[in-house]
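User: New here, any thoughts?
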Amino acid sequence: MIDTSLIADYWDAAAPSFDQEPDHGLRDEHTHRAWDRLLREWLPPAPQDVLDVGCGTGSLSALLARAGHRVTGVDLAPAMVDRAEAKLAAAGLPGRFLVGDAAAPPTGDERYDVVLARHLLWTLPDPEAALRAWVARLRPGGTLLLVEGRWRESDGTGQPYVTGAESLPWNGGVLPDTLAAAVEPLAGDVRVEPLSEHADLWGRQVDDVRYALIARL
C-alpha cells in the first residue's frame, strides 16, 4: 500500500513547475482554446455544478468557471490547491477548492451535474472504487468526463514516481477499452474520443495513447 503522504509530498513538490507543461498551465493560446472548445462540447450548457477531482493547479477549473459553471476542485496536495485558488482569484473567477483524496472527495452529500478527472486514475490504488465514488456523486442524468491515456512513467526514467507506485493497478495509464469496461456497468451511455492526434491539446505531437471517455447516467 502506498503512503498517501508520499503522494501528497510528490505533488506538493511538483506544484511550482507544474504549469510549465503546455497542457497543465494552458498558457499557450492555441492550447487554451483547444481545451476550452472540447470542454464546451463535452459538458452540458452552463451553468452546471462541476466537481474537478485531482484538480491540480486549477487550469481546467478556470476554463469551466469562465464558461459559467460552478466549480468545486479537490486535490490531495495542499500546494496544488493553493495555486488553484490563487489562479481563479487572480482571474476574478469563482471557485471552491478542497484538500482531500480525489478518490473519495470530501464533499459530503453534495451532488453534481459533472465529475471531471484528467490524468488521475493511474495514481490511484483502487481506481474502480474511485469510479464508483464519482458516479455516486452525480445527479441523475449527470456526466462523468475522464481524460486519460497510457504512457510511460511520469518522471521519464522508468522508475516509480513514489515508492510502491509500481504496484498500482493502472500504473502508467489505462487503455480505453479497459476503462470503458469499468465504467459501462455504472453508466448507460459511454463513448470514447481519441485525442492523441490533437497536438494543440498537448502543445506538441504525442506518440502515446490519449483519449476522453464521456459517460452519461
Notes: The radius of gyration is 16 Å. Residues 44 and 143 are 8 Å apart (CA to CA). The longest helix spans residues 4-18. The chain has a mean pLDDT of 93.
